[in-house]
Specification:
- This protein has helices at residues 20-27, 64-80, 100-108, 126-132, 148-159, 168-172, 206-224, 227-234, 240-266, and strands at residues 2-6, 32-36, 50-51, 61-62, 85-97, 112-118, 123-124, 135-138, 191-192, 195-196.
- The protein is of the alpha/beta class and 267 residues long.
Length: 267
Amino acid sequence: MRFDVITLFPEMLGVLSAFGITRRAHEEGRWSLQAWNPRDFTRDVHRTVDDRPFGGGPGMVMLAEPLAAAVEAALAAQRAAGLRASRVIALAPTGAPLTDARVRAWAAQQASGLVLVCGRYEGIDERFLELCVDEEVSIGDFVMSGGEIGAMALIDAVVRHLPGALKDASAQDESFAQGLLDAPHYTRPERWRGAQVPAVLLSGHHAQIAQWRRAQSLQRTLARRPDLLEDARRRGLLDASDERVLKAAREELRQVAQAAAERSAGE
């Protein structure tokens, strides 16, 4: 898979091919990266890429033309490389959330490419977004200095799911893979600072371990990301046994909340 990133700071992207899983997958030729600086597509002596916003207001807005020229060059390079499908994505807080499902869908598209546009300053001229971008993606409900870290997060997430980048079981058991958060993990020593590894994990009974992990995954999702449960139901990922675990977990959470409220009232 090929990623072309439109950025004013191409040096930031070097960490992707320098460390960890993405480095190994890059060395194995499973993905490639090309950065394009919009300043290289300007026509004035100052290499201007931004200007004051119409209507007034704080900050500067990125010019449409340098970005469009950079995207067109990236798409032409992807076509020349023989990629069958390319998609232009802008990283922006106004975009749709980046999800595990989207990541897996992109990774499943063999011989494809993504062009990632990293904004800076107050934002990007809306006309560029309307005419040159297929979709906007956000990595969270917060604002950062630019889209580079978001682009790197997207690339890292996609690369992990490319064939051969990870052992299949590793990706299948992660959070979101089955619509739920992952169960907790433990390693040696069995007792650390007074905290003991759950006995079931030391039992060697694989069926009981699988059952415990499923219950922990359900309970953790209910406590931390209950919004995921309704989606899991719609996708048919929960059975009657799961619902019984969730019912008991809800009751336990209710009792804990009630006890906390009573303590607070007593104080």
